[in-house]
């Protein structure tokens, strides 16, 4: 997280748009990133990709051996993200957007599809 914060601070200081591609299951981690953006007067958007648990487990199973995580980790992260969704709009993001397709990303081919909705 320290390396991420260091790079993010440098980018924000230059006024560069920055995207953090992370699960961010804990509000405290999201808060730290939000605070950095606010310190640099940059807008913030949470993009939520609601993915059904079976699809998460399937994708994890297809990962190469060194990138695979235990199913218990996937289960915990899915539960943490699901629990956080109802309060996400109150965390201080300028906008919270939700992808409306469970097939929004396929890491096998790097493609994206589906629509994004939200305010």
What best-fitting shape do the alpha-carbon axes yield?
globular
Give the CATH class.
Alpha Beta
Q: Sheet with the most strands? A: 3 strands, mixed
Helical proportion?
40-55%
Compute the number of helices. Answer: 4
Count of DSSP E strands?
A: 5
Count of all domains = 1
What is the name of the CATH architecture?
Answer: 3-Layer(aba) Sandwich
Q: Point out poorly predicted stretches.
A: 107-112
- Mean pLDDT across all residues, rounded? 87
Helix-strand pattern:
HHEHHEEEE
Describe this structure in words.
InterPro entries: P-loop_NTPase. This is AAA domain-containing protein. It comes from Streptomyces microflavus. The chain is α+β, with helices and mostly antiparallel strands. It has one domain (2-118): P-loop containing nucleotide triphosphate hydrolases (Rossmann fold, 3-Layer(aba) Sandwich). It has four helices and five strands. Helix 3 packs antiparallel against helix 4 (71-84). Mean pLDDT is 87; it is low at 107-112.
């Amino acid at each position: 997280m320290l390396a991420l914060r260091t790079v993010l601070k440098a980018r924000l200081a230059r006024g560069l748009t920055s995207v953090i591609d992370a699960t961010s299951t804990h509000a405290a981690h999201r808060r730290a990133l939000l605070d950095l953006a606010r310190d640099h007067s940059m807008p913030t958007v949470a993009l939520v990709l609601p993915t059904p648990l079976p699809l998460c487990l399937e994708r994890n199973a297809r990962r190469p051996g060194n990138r695979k995580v235990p199913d218990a980790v996937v289960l915990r992260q899915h539960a943490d993200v699901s629990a956080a969704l109802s309060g996400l709009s109150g965390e201080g993001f300028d906008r919270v957007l939700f992808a409306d397709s469970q097939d929004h990303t396929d890491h096998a081919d790097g493609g994206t599809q589906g629509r994004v909705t939200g305010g």
